[in-house]
Amino acid sequence: MAQRQALVWPPVYDEKNRRIKGFYPWIVRNKKVGPLLDSIREQSSHPEVTRVSIRAVIPMAVLVQMVNRNMGGIHIEAAFPISHIISGCWVAYVSYNKPQRASNEGLRSIVSISRKRSDPMAREELERQTTQYKIMQIKEMNDETAEKFSVLFASMFDVYPVDINPSAIREMPQGHIVMAAYEGEELTAVFMADRASFNLEYRTPLTFFDFVNVVSKKDGLLLVPLMARHVVEIANQDINPIIYAEARADVPGLQICCIRAGMQNCGTLAASSLFKDKGDDQAAFRDTKVWFIPNFIS
Predict the structure, then answer these.
(1) Domain boundary among 97, 128, 154
(2) CA–CA distance from 251 to each of 7, 79, 131, 227, 275 (Å)?
(3) Alpha-carbon span 85 to 74, nearest angstrom
(4) Which of 40, 109, 238, 274 is the most buried (most CB within 10 A)?
(5) How confident is residue 294, by pLDDT bands cut at 50, 70 and 90?
């Protein structure tokens, strides 16, 4: 699987997840709202596509107008501020789902449930409770390590949004920050952050770090947020880092991990990604919660 190290426009079709994703290359000021919405409508006409999701940088005033506007089935699903990089602006997910791809989120919010169970945890406390594990960054992936990664993912999932075979995993360090946790010689957790960069309006460099591929078979509620803290340290060495996570809404443990890592929830992506867990009868598109690292704690 080729790793994307740059965000490109026009958006691309993801056949496995039957969606089109992209990042709008201009700041969406008032005159750009129409062209952005027209592009989403055009992309949604593809017969195989059931979801279009475009991330865009939008000034707060325009974002409020879009939230309160009838956009013909197009919605602002999530948004988080990047004023520390571009004054007054937010990154927003502007999305459209066809009727057959409805949200599967229940009436009770997983985030609300998770918040009752957890609070942010200091890195020192996470480290104190996980002293038996060794966490390391994987900068080069050999065949043996790639095989172990693949086996760990395959033990949890029959269908996953991206390829998790050894060949694909071998290439992951080229476009991701890859962390692994070991107990002795046993691989117990994997944490990957996708790194993608581009120049907004061809002049302002932005670097996005998306916590995308996470799996743990032991002490995940402690290991995963600790690994996230390691990734944040590495990401903050880059140019204008924007750090966020897309975590399955139907897995309370992932939401707890985001809270413990100091992240804040900022929306839900409806039926975003295809999963089939071990024991499930069939694969299904799952809702995804978006979390971001506030600049003041990053």
Answers:
(1) 97
(2) 28, 21, 26, 18, 12
(3) 27
(4) 40
(5) confident
